[in-house]
Write a structure and sequence with these properties.
Blueprint lengths: L14 H4 L9 H17 L2 E2 H8 L3 H13 L3 E3 L13 E4 L5 E7 L3 E8 L4 E8 L5 H16 L10 E8 L7 H4 L14 H8 L5 E5 H12 L8 E6 L3 E7 L2 E2 L14 E5 L5 E5 L6 H10 L6 H4 L8 H23 L6 E6 L3 H15 L11 E4 L6 H15 L10
Parallel strand pairs: 4-7, 7-8, 9-14, 14-15
Antiparallel strand pairs: 1-3, 2-3, 4-5, 5-6, 9-10, 10-11, 12-13
Helix pairs in contact: 3-4, 8-13, 11-12
Amino acid sequence: MDEEAPVVGASQPMTALSAGSRGTSQSGVGLYNERLILSLIRRQRSLAKVEIARLTGLSTQTTTVIINRLEADGLLLAGEPQRGRIGQPSVPYTLNPDGAFGLGLMIGRRSCDLVLMDFTAGIRARRRMIYPYPAPEEILAFAEREMPNLLAELPVAQHRRISGLGVAMPFELWNWEADLETPPGALGQWRDFDVVAELSRRFARWPVRLCNDATSACAAELTFGAGASYRDFAYFYVGTFIGGGIVLNGSLFPGRSGNAGALGSMPIMRREPNGDASLQQLIRTASIYRLERRLIAAGRRGTDIWLSPDDWSNFAEPLDVWISEAAEALAQAITSLLAVIDFEAIVIDGAFPADVRGRLVAQTRAQRARIDGQGLTDTVVVEGSIGRDARAIGGAALPLLATFAPDHDVLFKD
């Protein structure tokens, strides 16, 4: 690893960034106000001081002091003054992409991504590994081997602006051997494997945080994507296995055990090829592993899904059938969800090309129209805005949001 270098242009040392607790010398109220202002600017993209004061209820003087400090710390950028109004020109402030960085490790069932993300969710660098199934030691070796190459993409002077390492991965991986068709016991190592402890030992300079992969994707949509437009929404992420998340009152709802939004476990009626219907979990129909099996049955390589993540144009009939089945299953699951909470929106995203996402959402809407919805409040079914990077972005966001999000952001509390 390279030596740490001082931050250029910062008004005070930012070593607290790498400890995940920026501003520990400030009062709790002051730190909260800083985080609140950063979150407002992130959501609105650009805000002037007078608008920030109005939205927060802070005095103009307090707002100015905080904005000036955040700008001096390199977290905010001042835009061109907006003239044409009565009084002084209004200066819009935006987040500085170079203000802070997060590292993300997405451990999937078929692939693993290591990413370097900036303060506005831009992926600055990425390394990927594809495998038949995830093995702990191989993933640790991958992360240790590729981390220096990832950091080489960032000027040394900015390394101290890295907030930490976030890990997004499925929980209880060992339960999915049959569906992944792995050798018996291949995933058993995960049962007692402490991924946070092992990564912390290898990358001791940063705090390491862990979150379920689908929950991380939901947090990414809420924080960086179109999900911010809705106060309440249910989120489906279609990966190797489908998962999800729940957002209520503008905040991600983890539930009492952290397992709220386990939408892949919802029961749906699935029609078998012989015409019979059986009660199955959503995960066994609307998951990409089902498409993988269809491709293999058609004489294709299942790995083409992961080797060509942005172009499935030659998957032909297996893809058409999979989209149809997944849409029907999703429509059933959405109807069940609306019987519990009258969500403003249902967001569908996943590890597939944008055109596939569009087809899946369109067919899900069509299938919903065929289901009896009497007594239910209607909702909109919309496409997610981030795509296959949602889990990796959500992982990299963990240390950033732990450092900069308001305290009420329950998902990212220690």
